[in-house]
Amino acid sequence: MILAGAQRAGKPGYPWLVFLHGFSGDCREWQTVGESLTDYPRLYLDLPGHGGSAGISVSGFSNVSDLLASTLLSYNILNYWLVGYSLGGRIAMFHACQQPAGLSGIVVEGGHPGLQNADAREVRLASDRRWATRFRTEPLAEVFADWYQQPVFASLTNAQRGELIALRSRNDGANLAAMLEATSLAVQPDLRSALSAYNAPFYYLYGERDEKFAAIAAELNAERHVIPHAGHNAHRENPGAVAASLAQILRLRIKDTL
């Protein structure tokens, strides 16, 4: 079994960019940014429970990481960077900590490395279970209207919030609920120690108005890029700046290998 996705050709010798979207997104989420990086072959994946992978269910992060490895092998992708947002960023970090062959570096936007105490895990687990129940039983437009009122999305304008509610409501609620539970932050390992030992390039992007993830970024052994005029969903709110950061990162890292 492999994940669905969309691929784009690039120049020979350039590493692949493999893009992982956030919760309730799909393979289109990163394409505005990715299509400015035409030298690089790109693969935009649908995570389990989303888009063309909606029918794929997983048991946890190890299962997702194995699926990602199988998918990359099926495309014969042997030299790649992972670029992930939020849930996709958490998956990228977990996958990197497995030290997979061929992974040249990771770029994470607004991804959480993991909760550090049992009380926080219990609180998050209860919260995610409540959301999962709502995704299974209520109209998605109503659930997402409340979802995007969470503090992490406070920088969104009413128009941006309405656009996201309409877009995300095209999903299947039961599939989203299953993925939310399988990849809850409550069940994710705390990756800080493993990330400190990760010996490949690690970059962390966050919006200048995203105070929560600015603080998280400061805890990590990663080079930080602040995206101006953006909150938590920086690549959607300011795609040009995120694309410029990616281009700079890649230019510095691969110029001597081509």
TrEMBL record:
Gene3D superfamilies in UniProt: alpha/beta hydrolase
Record key words, sorted: Lyase, Menaquinone biosynthesis
Domain of life: Bacteria
Short name of one Pfam family: Abhydrolase_1
Catalytic reaction equation(s): 5-enolpyruvoyl-6-hydroxy-2-succinyl-cyclohex-3-ene-1-carboxylate = (1R,6R)-6-hydroxy-2-succinyl-cyclohexa-2,4-diene-1-carboxylate + pyruvate
AB hydrolase-1 domain mapped to chain residues: 15-239
Keyword Nucleotide-binding: no
Listed GO MF terms: 2-succinyl-6-hydroxy-2,4-cyclohexadiene-1-carboxylate synthase activity
The EC number(s) this enzyme carries: 4.2.99.20
Pathway: Quinol/quinone metabolism; menaquinone biosynthesis; Quinol/quinone metabolism; 1,4-dihydroxy-2-naphthoate biosynthesis; 1,4-dihydroxy-2-naphthoate from chorismate: step 3/7
Xref: InterPro entries: AB_hydrolase_1 (IPR000073), AB_hydrolase_fold (IPR029058), SHCHC_synthase_MenH (IPR022485)
Subunit structure: Monomer.
Protein task: Catalyzes a proton abstraction reaction that results in 2,5-elimination of pyruvate from 2-succinyl-5-enolpyruvyl-6-hydroxy-3-cyclohexene-1-carboxylate (SEPHCHC) and the formation of 2-succinyl-6-hydroxy-2,4-cyclohexadiene-1-carboxylate (SHCHC).
Similarity comment: Belongs to the AB hydrolase superfamily. MenH family.
Protein name: 2-succinyl-6-hydroxy-2,4-cyclohexadiene-1-carboxylate synthase
Gene from which the chain derives: menH
